[in-house]
């Protein structure tokens, strides 16, 4: 690698090359000077990363520290499968290995995270001036293993006292952040 992959500076005795520990590309010191923890790749101490990777690593660390427990603890929703009119009260949570979305009620579903194609968070309370909104549900689309069929599920926060709306809203906010991270990592 004779030149920096960001600014095209030529490497020589004075301008040394450095590797981003996340993407592995070669950069000069100016373009690869951030030191950020990278626990998912088993780097315990902060390591050198390019600016783009450092930003993503910081978002991931924040997500793991704040949102992951919320997703794994779960929340209660009314779940509607496909175009059905009937909904079922289910607890939705992320599995311990973080690879499945587990739904438990009278029925049981396990949706592999990698099979999820779209997540749309449903909100209410939007005002034209950009006022506060809150999450009230989501629509999830995923591929059924072994076929090309796309299935849709609608999750709605419950209206009664047995469903904690605040917990459901927190879970939906965490799911929204998880989805953004998932889409960003798929784009890399």
UniProtKB/TrEMBL annotation:
Q: Does the keyword Metal-binding apply?
A: yes
Q: InterPro entries this protein is in? A: FYVE-type_Zinc_Finger, ZFYVE21_C, ZFYVE21_C_sf, Znf_FYVE, Znf_FYVE-rel, Znf_FYVE_PHD, Znf_RING/FYVE/PHD
Which UniProt keywords are present, listed alphabetically?
Metal-binding, Zinc, Zinc-finger
- Work out whether the entry's keyword set contains Metal-binding: yes
Domain (FYVE-type) spans: 1-53
| Gene Ontology molecular functions | zinc ion binding
What SMART domains does the record tag this protein with? FYVE
PROSITE patterns assigned to the protein according to its UniProt record, in alphabetical order: ZF_FYVE
What's this protein's name?
Answer: Zinc finger FYVE domain-containing protein 21
User: From which source organism is this entry?
Assistant: Tauraco erythrolophus (Red-crested turaco)
Its lineage reads: Eukaryota, Metazoa, Chordata, Craniata, Vertebrata
